[in-house]
User: What shape does this take?
Amino acid sequence: MLSPTRLILISAVSLYIAVYADAQELLEIQDLDREVDLTSQLAKVTHSLTIKNVGKVQTQQYAVCFPADASAQLAFLEVVEGESDDAAPLPASPVILDTQPGNASCWGVHLSQALQPGATSELDVYAVFTKLQHAFPAHIQQAEPQRVLYQDSAYVLSPYSIATQTTKFKLPTRRLESWTKHAPSTHTGSLLKYGPYKQTPGFAATPLRLHYENNAPFAEVMKLEREIEVSHWGNVYVEERYELKHGGAKHQGVWSRLEYMQDPGRNGPASIRELVAHLPRSARWLYFKDDIGNVSTSAVRFGFDKVEALLHPRYPLFGGWKVQFTFGWSMPLRDFVARLSGSHMQLSLPLSSPLQGVIVDDLTVKVVLPEGASNIRPSTPFPMQTSGDGRKFSYLDTTGRPVLTLRKINLVPDHNKEFSVTYQMPLLAILWEPIYLTIAVMAAFGGVMAYVRCEFTISRDSKWLAEQAREKMVDLTSRLQALLAGRSAAIAILDDTDIASVDLARRTAEAALHESDAELKELQGEFTRLPGFKKGGEVASLLEAERALQGSALQLSHQRVSLLREGLSTMEISSRLERHEQGVAERQEDVAGQLEALTLIA
Amino acid sequence: MSKALGLQPLDSPIAEGWYPTLAVLLILAGLGSTASFFVYEVTTTKFSRNLRRELSLSIVASLFLGFGLLFLLLWTGVYV
Assistant: This one.
């Protein structure tokens, strides 16, 4: 049984076949310039062509084909219509043409507008292939240059007939060991030119082999894991874990660092001496480490438009050698995260490795957003495998930070475009982190509060009991002191109150005294209940003296008021009340003395 | 990048230049209130201790210390 999706796929493919079968009859390539840039480890192929509709009906389809074995290594394909450089690339998807031979793989391109009969259009096809330049010999010694073999066809593989075509191969050096001639073909310096060839039919091919020197370092990242962690407190961390190897001709025999350093130009010309990383201008706090620790042999240059880091691994990489390291840095939040509206944020930054000239076999990008982020949507410049159900526990997390994982295989520098992730995050959610810290500190205080309430005495002996009684005594005495001070203050207010409101003030003071009487009585009771307390008499006499003091103080204030009402002068009042005042002062001294005596006992 | 697109960049709630100052001031205030908490704990007996006063002292101290520690972490480059 076929699943519905497979049925749809099959019908879509058969529809394509029908459409392209027509298109092949309709189109003709008038003029095609192919340029193959072999100066790095990549093969960058550019077709600049003019197509013409030679049929009777309009068409909107164009097919671009490459040899099947090369297609497996196709990393990047972009078809642009017209002459302008900033035109949007046209969508391309794999198709199977009915005329296509077994050694070809084709991609269908949907033109932006239908091509009328007789009309022409200009197209630019840009394709990047990895690992098409094979080391030959496959093993070299330290001082040998690296030579590679590249196989292609002198004719451009195309389903359409081509009126005129030329191909230029740009080689890294002028040292060309051998090449297949196919007249007219010329070799000048580091340039190989084939063509022009006239009137080649569809899918015409004539194989050619180029054998030349290519000392470009074949830096190949077998596995790259990038982790981008966003903190709304103002930072974006990027950490990259690399598994890198030299994918060129394998090193054989001994290796001598002395010779390597004495003659850097000729000794180990294809080795990887350093890796250059271009980071955004505001990158800071870079680090470069491996399993052993920090790798100190690196340099950083802070430029106007970028930060350039020169990373020297612990040893140079020869063919087949591998190295693992971690490279990381930080960037300010405001340069990479924008607020779209309310709680909607957008993170945008470059997708792939900042290392220059490397190919990445397997890229994983993990975007770690702050705890509480939701509604996470990535937007990538090309399709990527996406999963968004990861969690990461980092600083001060409870439920974990949401992790969005993006994955793609076979990347070249052209893939290093910007991608973005939109998400929703309440602005106040970042306050959870200080609240967690506060709760942790509070827990420590709670521990102290619990500890002081614990009793660790093993035996409750007489000494312990005496200590308890003393503590209780201290407590009671200080409470008594506070209570008595309050009572004195309540009375003292009367002296400063003016005549008009003095009656009300006195009533209030009396009520306060009356109220605290009960408390005093209760305190006295507690004193007498203290185990082994023998100073009950002292407490009673203190309270008695205090009560007498308050009584006479109240009376004094009463007399002063009535004398004032009689209209006597202040001088006269004070002379009349002098004895009474003295009496109050004596009582006050008496109370203070008794209280002090009691405190000393405690 | 976001600026080039005319979007409003997202800033930290408090300017990053303030982190060191805030860390020092808040931690000092936190240590001071921690000291007053411990002074209270050791100068009172289990009969005279007042839970409400203990709680208020410790909550003030932990708020100061909690936020102070946060800014200390941020100052040292640990962006939580």
In short: Strands of chain B lie at 8-9. Residues 19-43 of chain B form the longest helix (25 residues). Residues 18-75 of chain B form one domain. The first strand of chain B starts at residue 8 and ends at 9.
